[in-house]
Amino acid sequence: DDNGSGGDDKMPLFDDGVTWYCYCVCGLLWLTDLTPLGPLLRASGPAAIYWLVGIQWLGFFAPTLAWARSQGWPVTRLLLGQRVWPGWGWLAAGAGAGAAVYLVVGSIMAAKAGIPLAEWWAGSAHVAVPPATPADPMAAFMEAERSSVLGSMIAAPSNALEAARLWACAALSPAVCEELLYRGLLLTALQRPRLAGPALLGRTDAVFVTAALFALAHLDLPQFGPLTFLGVAAGGLAVASGSVLPAIAAHATYNSAALALGVLGGGL
């Protein structure tokens, strides 16, 4: 049964997934472009990362959870998958996949920017990348990375407690929230039938479409490729294991690597 319906009529349909995604994207656009919140977050510096955590969980996850419950959907199965606990082996595989995705993405970026890998991973990429020019798309990519909203919110921690708090807010929390919603609700819904007909997407199609939608929702064009790659890996893990937890492990590892090298002056 490649459409993923599994004969369970109590799960969201394809149309529900589209509705939810439109709510998220329109909500993000409204918050960042049509309200003072976007400029306020940029102006608040490193403290803004904590506001983003609240917005993510209270503005998107909590309403989604309330909606799912109001529809009578099995929330645990919907958000965590068929197997709530897939085993330590799958979690290790997820962490390894997240690290591998980050290594591949970083290596490709270094190669395109003409930066030796040793310098890139040593954390000197921010010095080696030349100013952006129209003929140098990779330099433009890196310039966008340096000036991103999230980049302006992250400051090097001064002690272990600050480091743990930063990791929880900038690496772990987004991974948990986004994977529950994208590889949980959205990936499930996109495999289901439509109100007006049969399913449009099989499992593999849904993994790739969900990954692209996940990347697009970040409203960050330079990160579209890397985030799509991460989304495909996370979706593949979720489908293969029957659980969203390996996808969370992959996403959290990817974020942790990016955060660690970013705080130390690295490439992402």
Automatic annotation (TrEMBL):
UniProt keyword annotation of Secreted present: no
Membrane-spanning residues: 18-37, 49-68, 88-111, 200-221, 227-249
GO BP field: CAAX-box protein maturation
GO MF: endopeptidase activity
Ranges of residues in domain CAAX prenyl protease 2/Lysostaphin resistance protein A-like: 166-256
Keywords assigned by UniProt, alphabetized: Membrane, Transmembrane, Transmembrane helix
Claim: Transmembrane helix is one of the keywords in the record: yes
InterPro entries per record: Rce1/LyrA-like_dom (IPR003675)
Protein name according to UniProt: CAAX prenyl protease 2/Lysostaphin resistance protein A-like domain-containing protein
Organism: Chlamydomonas leiostraca
